[in-house]
Structure formats: C-alpha cells, structure tokens
Amino acid sequence: MAEEKIVFDFDGSRTMEISTGKVAKLANGACIVRQGDTMVLVTACSGAPREGTDFFPLQVDYREKYSAAGRFPGGYIKREGKPSTHEILTCRMIDRPIRPLFPNGFFDEVQILCTLLSVDGVNEPDVLAMVGASASLMLSDLPFQGPIGAVRVGLVDGEYVINPTREQMAKSKLELIYAGSPDKVIMIEGEAEFVTEQQMKEAMYAANEAIKKQCAAQLELAAKAGRPKKEYKLYPVPAELQKRLEAFCASRMEAVCTIPGKEDRQKAQDELREEMRNALRADFADMDDASFALETAKGFDDFVRTVTRSVILSKQFRPDGRSITDIRPLSAEVGVLPVVHGSGLFTRGETQALVIATLGNDKDAQEYDDLNSPTGNGVKRFYLHYNFPPFTVGEVGRMAGPGRREIGHGNLAERSVSKVIPKDFPYVIRCVSEIMSSNGSTSMASVCGATLALMDAGVPITAPVAGISCGLVTGENGERLLLTDIIGAEDHFGDMDFKVCGTREGITGFQLDLKLPGIPIDLLCEGMERDRIARLKILDVIEACIPAPRAELSARAPRLEIVKINPEKIGALIGPGGKNIRSITEETGASIDVAEDGSVKIMAANKEQLDAAKERVVGSTAEAEIGKIYKGKVVTIRDFGAFVNILPGIDGLLHISEMADYRVGKVTDICNEGDFVTVKVIDIDQSGKIRLSRKAALKELDK
Questions:
Q1: pTM over 0.90
Q2: Alpha helices in 642-686 (DSSP H)
Q3: Which of 191, 311, 427, 553 could bond to 557 as cystine, CB 3.0-4.6 Å?
Q4: Which residues of 597-611 are buried (b: 16+ CB within 10 A; e: fewer)?
Q5: Is 485 left (phi over 0), alpha (psi -120 to 50) or beta?
Q6: What are the beta bridge partners of residue 633?
Q7: DSSP code of 391?
C-alpha cells in the first residue's frame, strides 16, 4: 500500500499531518501524526477474547523514547524502562475517550501502542497520540464508532490558543485537554488558575472547532486507505437466561437497589443473585458452572443497572435516598495525628480521606524526565500521592505499587491544589492521601483533605480548594438527569463522572469521564454549574473547621531560613572537597542547599540547630569590614607584627606599632601563635590586604 497523507489547517495558522502506509504495515491500523517536528506513531491491533471475560480488554500504552529528543537515557542502564508517571497519565488520557466508542458486548482484546518518534521541544506529543489512536482505529478493521479529535487549549493574554507551544503554555491561565466528536465532548482534563465556568465553556467551544477539522481529516484518510470493517462477534448474555433472570428478580430488584448503605445494599444484591442462581441452575444444565456463573453475573449486573437508572430517572430517587442536588453529610477535622507536620480528615458520606502534609528542603523535591523541555527534566516542589488499599471497599487484595488509577487520582488532586501554594514558599511539600473508605469520588475527598492538612501545617495557601463530582443518567427517550455528588453505584451504573475542583474565585482542576459516545457541551456546562454550587457548600464546611492557615508553621515542621552571601564566597562556604559545609551539617544537624546566586537555604529540626548553622555559614562567608572589631587567632609571628585570622580564610596584619598604646619591644610580649586577640580593622587596601589594630580595639571597648 502506498503512503497516504492528509495535511490540514486546524487552528487558522498551523497545520497537522496524519499519514499511513509507510511503516507498521502489518498492524490492523497504523498512522503517524505530526505537528511541527513532533511525530508520534500509533498502531492498533486486536486479538481473540480472553477466556471468561466480562469486560472490554482495551490496553493503551504510550512510550517516550529518549532518541526522539536526541538524548541518552540516564543512569547505568542505557535503555528505557518502566513507564514514567507522565507516560501513565497520557495512557489514561488516550484510553478514556476511545473506550466508549466500541459496541457493548465487544470483548476482543485491543491494544493501542503510541511511540514518540520525534519531539521538537515546541509541540506537545500527548494530544497527537490521542488523535493518532482514533485515526489508527478508523484505518483498522475494528468496530470503532469514531472518529474523535483531541486538542490542548490555553488561555494566553485573554485569547484561546489551540495546541499552544510550550512558550505559550508558560503564560497560560488554562490547560484544557479536550477530546470529542463534532459538537460532542467525550473527555476533558486539565488545570487552571482560577478560571470561571464561562471561560471554560468558551474554551470548549474553541476546541470543538478544531475537533471538526481533525475528524474530517480522519474520515478522508480512512476513505482512501482504511481497511474494510469486519463483522465481530458480540458476547451479550443469552436472551433466554436474561429473560428468566429478570423475571425472577423483578419483584425485589427495586428494593435492593435503593437501600441507603453501600454495604447493606451490596449484601442484599449478593443474596438475591445467589437465590436467582440456585433457582435457575437446573433449567440451564447445558451450561458449565463457570459459564453459568459468568453469564448470570453479567446479566444480574445489567439488570441492576437498568433498575437503578430507571428509578433515578422516573422517580428522581437515588440509591441512598438523597435528592438529585443533595450532597452527602460532610465533616472535616484537622490535627488528627500528633507527630506529622499537618493532617486533615475529610468525610463525605461513606467516602473518607486522611491526608498528611510533610515539609522538607530542596533535596526532597521530585525530579522527573521531560523530553520536550530544553533541559530534559523538571522539578516539582509540591506533589501529592494517593493510596487506595483494599480495605477501603471492604475487600482483600494484593498490596503492590501504585497502579494507573492511583497515579491518575493523585495527579488530579495534586494539580488542583498546587494552584494555591505560594510560588515563593521556601519548603518542598509532600501530601499523602490515605483513603480510609470509598463510596465515590475519593480523588475529590483527597483535594479537600489536602487543603485541611496544608492549613493545619501552617502552609500559607492563598485560598482553600474543594472538589466534587457530578453524574448523569440518560434515558432511551432522551431524558437527562444530572446528579450532584455521585456515589459508587451511580458512577458504576451512570453515564458520567465529572470532577471539578476550585476555590471561591474559580476552577483549578477538572476531569471528565463518560460511558457515552459524547454529550453536548452545554449539558456539560450545566454539570459544571452543579459542581460550582456544591463546591461552595463544601468550602463552608472546610472554613468552619479551620478558617485560615495557622499563623505559624507546625512545631513539628523543620525550621528554615534563607541567608544571602556573596556568590564569590560559595567556594569558601563549601571548602576544599566540601570539607567546610560537611563539617557544618555534621556538627549542627542542619541541611544546607547553596544556589548559584548566593542564596543559602538552611533547614534544621529546631531553632537552636538553625541558629548554630546560620552562625557558621555567616562566619564562613563574611567579609572583613573597616571599623569592625573581631576576635581572631594568631596564626603567624614575625618581627614586625603578627598575622591574625579574623574570619574563615581571611587574615590581617597586626603591626607591632598597633599592638598597644605604648612602645612594644617584641611581638611575643603581646601574643604568641595560637593566642586569641581582639582587633579592629583599620584599613583594607585596593589589593585586599587588611590592617588590624589591637590598641584601637581596646580603646573602643574601654569607652
């Protein structure tokens, strides 16, 4: 197949290119997406359904190669290893908008591989990979109901910019990553510096215009080079089994779907499912036990979904008894842990997050790789980690490292809270969200808990941040019902999970997940307004608990002070082979970071250690001043006088004539090597030679 290429103008001034047929010809679908000199290869392949599968096994991987930036991997092993946090977050962004566009009951294994081939330091590759995922699926024989487009929107000097350059993004108040089809949004994610809901709406409509051009280009390319679509087998529950299952459960299903407590509701549903299985097993003897268990599990879950959605739509009655706009009971506490620097416990219904804040120095900052930056790396001074152990949902499970979900939830909370950390705050901050129980929107509870923990630690955040999620249930006849503060069942059985975080002033972070192949932008904006109203109520609870950051840092937090020295004195502070600075840190217990501009950041466990280290730093880098009195050590004796060390590395001449207010016969009548003498600096010549006077110092001290 010859290479086919579509080049199109997507923002009125720049072009994007999608090509296929040159490389990766054996994949079901493959394309290269290019903007500027950034290029991403995306391939789509499929395999047979996994044995016993009851879900769509879609796997998305995004990998950045150092060679794409003309660099070598760091460290001993000169090969890319496990995916970075950035790569994992990009995988999630690609997965979420394409997953809803496959047919229900399609369980074939599908793998999307995105490989960064070239990166120019100007154009970001992640949105190109999202476009490439859609294009490769459109070119393939898979039953993908696309296409979709994807862009990043910035707000620079009051103007909305599509796929801004890195230089433009540095000035932007908004980072909106938008994926959708023409006039329908499927996924958004990003962060902002207190933008309004109206600005978010305008940004989404700006994105929609670029999306239309991307989708048109994909359709054109697929018409030229796409494979014919195959007929794929779907795996619904056998119709007779589903009919009998629903008939058996119908009289009790609404009751078990509307039990307020999560645990009680789940227990009642489990009991009904087992009764149904026992009653129907003999009638389906031709099915083996594994198949019968799988199909009844799928069928029962489908019926719970149908009944739950029907009750919500027809009666506006939610599983836990709330109205569609009610927030679950809220509570907030601070100072719940005695030793940590700051702690906050936030509870919303059966969802609870305990967040711990820890303050550290520059060595505690998080370094990360960034191939699209000039230096190839970056540093975070505030970061938030999210942990979701099995007990949070009353289950057992294997404890391992953080999965993609934990990394994604932590990153959303981190970005949302980072906007209120003062840029000149000298401490590095780590927040850890330990989820205590989960029944919907633990990431939003983490945002609220982090706000509490930071204020408890005395971090001078500019404003409290809160987050909440809005859900959606749609009906077959076009009914649409938005739900404020969704619980786990409403997330699982509903159509939308739209999380928005912010202050009273505006939005700081957001994320949309849909199970539908898109919704109108205006409907999403209605959900955003619901989130705003709920957010203000949560902020009332947070501020009632702790109205402002504590006036002083936690007594448990380390003490920190920045001392400014002459940059030319950095060498004197460090000493030969680091001897001097190592001596200071070992003897005082403080940690010291020295910047090239002469800023010395001293951190210690308490004020006494801080003062001791500060005195040593100042002493090591101080310069002699005319008229100042010093107590120095005699280091050399000569016939004409003595050389006295008054500061580290700084000696001056105490001439015999300046030793006393009478005639001194010989130097040793006044001092010997190793003695300490009080002297005054009386002159520093142009070459830096220092003249000292003992008699002038004694005369001044006698006054």
A1: no
A2: none
A3: 553
A4: ebebbbbbeeeebbb
A5: left
A6: 645, 676
A7: G
DSSP states of 496-511: EEEEEEE-SS-EEEEE
| Bridge partners, residue 51, by sequence | none
What HEC string does 316-351 produce? CCCCCCCCCCCCCCEEEEECCCCCCCEEEEEEECCE
Residue 236 is given by DSSP the state P
Token look-up 């501009």 returns: 597
Name 559's bridge partners: 604
The upper half-sphere exposure of residue 118, i.e. CA atoms within 13 Å in the direction of its Cβ, equals 9
Length of the chain: 703
C-alpha to C-alpha distances, 4 to 16, 21, 266, 274, 417, nearest whole angstrom: 14, 6, 53, 56, 45
| Residue 512 CA, distance from chain mean position | 15
- Going by the DSSP 8-state scheme, the letter that residue 519 receives in this structure is B
Per-residue 3-state assignment (H helix, E strand, C coil) for 110-170: EEEEEEEEECCCCCCCHHHHHHHHHHHHHHCCCCCCCCCEEEEEEEECCEEEECCCHHHHC
- C-alpha to C-alpha distance for 455 and 551, rounded to whole angstroms: 9
The rounded distance, in Å, linking the Cα atoms of 304 and 266 is 11
Q: What's the rounded Cα separation, in Å, for the pair 540 and 424?
A: 28
138, 98 Cβ separation under 8 angstroms: no
Q: How far is CA 276 from CA 86, 262, 283, 297, 684, in A?
A: 46, 21, 12, 11, 98
User: Between β-strands 174-181 and 149-156, what pairing exists: parallel, antiparallel or unpaired?
Assistant: antiparallel
Amino acid, single-letter form, for residue 587:
E
Q: What 3-state class would DSSP assign to 542?
A: helix
DSSP 463: S
Cross-strand pairs, 368: 378
> What are the residues facing 58 on neighbouring strands?
110
Cβ proximity of 344 and 332 under 8 Å: yes
Please write down the HEC assignment for all residues of 360-390.
ECHHHCEEEECCCCCCCEEEECEEEEEECCH
Q: Is 44 helix (H, G, I), strand (E, B) or coil?
A: strand
The pLDDT averaged over each successive group of 10 residues in the chain (703 residues) is 89 90 95 97 92 86 94 85 93 97 93 97 96 98 96 96 94 97 97 97 97 97 95 90 94 90 90 95 91 93 93 87 93 96 97 97 87 81 96 88 93 97 94 96 97 97 98 91 94 95 98 96 97 98 98 90 86 86 89 88 88 85 87 93 87 94 92 94 89 93 80
Contact present, 420 and 462 (Cβ < 8 Å) = yes
